[in-house]
Amino acid sequence: MLCGFLRSKKSLSFSESLHTADKTEALRRGNALKLIQSHLSNKKSTFKGEQQSSIKLIIAGVPQGSILGSLFFLLFINDLPNSNLMKIILFLDDTVLVQSDNNLEKLQNFVNCEMTKVIDWLTANKLTLTISKTKYMLITNRYETHIP
């Protein structure tokens, strides 16, 4: 089905990935190994709810609320564009995947196929999507386009 110019935009949010990122993988990807090791190794935390928990060793995630925390996350996500054929725009924990085509059915099939590759990449890197913040948008220059 031809529909004129079409563009697909998929916005992904990886904010939950900050909690699941594998520290060992961050060490492998970074250049300043000693700085990263000292910042990620032997980190401990306590949690406060109704009662304060005992001090526990943090074994996953990168520190949030620091400049280095964002840098470490970017080390994880930086090779996502190599995982599929869509144009990928990265900004901190937000990502946009963009693809264009003149055929709606072909565009939808391509985007679905490439999203499978993204999910595989996320799984391999122990990262998670924040589904509630992940959106899909179809943009067209046609005023009257029936979209199934």
Topology, pairings included?
Blueprint: E1 2-13, H1 23-29, H2 33-40, E2 44-45, E3 56-57, H3 67-77, E4 87-91, E5 94-103, H4 104-124, E6 135-140
Antiparallel strand pairs: 1-5, 1-6, 2-3, 4-5
Helix pairs in contact: 1-2
Description:
This protein is of the alpha+beta class and 148 residues long. The chain contains four helices and six strands; from the N terminus they run βααββαββαβ. The strands form two sheets. The protein has a four-stranded antiparallel beta sheet with strand order 4-5-1-6. Strands 2-3 form a two-stranded antiparallel ribbon. Helix 1 packs antiparallel against helix 2 (33-40). It starts with a strand and ends in an 8-residue tail after the last strand.
Q: Would you summarize the structure shown here?
A:
The protein is an alpha+beta fold.
Keywords:
four-stranded antiparallel beta sheet, single chain, 148 residues, 32% helix, alpha+beta
State the helicity in percent bands.
25-40%
Overall geometry comes to: elongated
Number of helices: 4
Structural class: alpha+beta
The overall pLDDT average reads: 76
Count of DSSP E strands? 6
How would a crystallographer describe the biggest sheet?
Answer: 4 strands, antiparallel
% residues in beta strands: 25-35%
Main sheet: strand order: 4-5-1-6
Helix-strand pattern: EHHEEHEEHE
Unreliable spans are none
